[in-house]
Amino acid sequence: MSQIEIRPALAGDREPVLAFCASTWEWGDYIDQVWDDWMENLAGQLLVATVDQQLAGIVHIQLLNETESWLEGLRVNPDYRRQGLARALNEAAMVEAMRRGATTIRLAVDSHNVASIELSESMHMRRVGDFALYTARPFTTPPSRAPQQPVRLATLEDLDMIIDYLNASNIFPLVGGLYYVKFQALPITAEFLEQKINSQQIYLLQRWERLDGLAIAEIRRENQQQRLSVGYLDGTTIEAISFIAYNLRRHLSELQLEQVRVYAPETLLIHDAFAGVEYDTDHAIFCTYERSLE
């Protein structure tokens, strides 16, 4: 009978793991880009599974704050699949998250990855939202379109208005009430909004003396690019969403950034709004799952 062990990753595990991850997708995998960070980050734990002392799978658990955890990077060597390793790795990661004080765990999975979706649901995780990625580069020529009204940075005086807006939003529940960054997500709470306002990372569109849309964004270096990462974008109409997306793209040159990338639900309203200001998408949809650990 095979002997299965799950343990923290060691430096010497890197090359064998990268070898069986090399063909995860047609283009390869991203594990080689994050391995060192996952090994060194004290707020997370990289776990490996061995079968008869042979490396057979990995998973990473990340603590995003004192109570929120994120599950990512689940991989199983094709030679060792259908032996329950994926479930065992996820369960070990959940135990590690609880040991560190997490009360919630989440993950994101491609909507076409049926096996991972079935595994998540069998482990009592519930689907709380979906998102797709929309990207655009700076305008190559100065935009001729004149803004009807500029998007502005939020202040703490706007906090109650923002909360009221999100409570009535149709988009907010579609993404699980979450802010996405680095393919991870945190709940958008009053405390979170206050932090983002203080960091000057919330942009508001006000028209006719009411809030008509907003974006929460931060500058990040990802994949050797300086990006404006928009983790949440909302608007009451196609026009409002399009106008905010247009303004974010227009500001790329001023911020000396190479790309804007938006996490947003793949709805007809969102799709038409972004298409109107020439954002690209590959139409891949990711499902976010959540489970309480209490």
TrEMBL record:
It comes from Dictyobacter formicarum. Gene3D superfamilies: 3.40.630.30. Residues 4-148 form the N-acetyltransferase domain. Pfam families: Acetyltransf_1 (PF00583). It comes from the Bacteria. This is N-acetyltransferase domain-containing protein. InterPro entries: Acyl_CoA_acyltransferase, GNAT_dom.
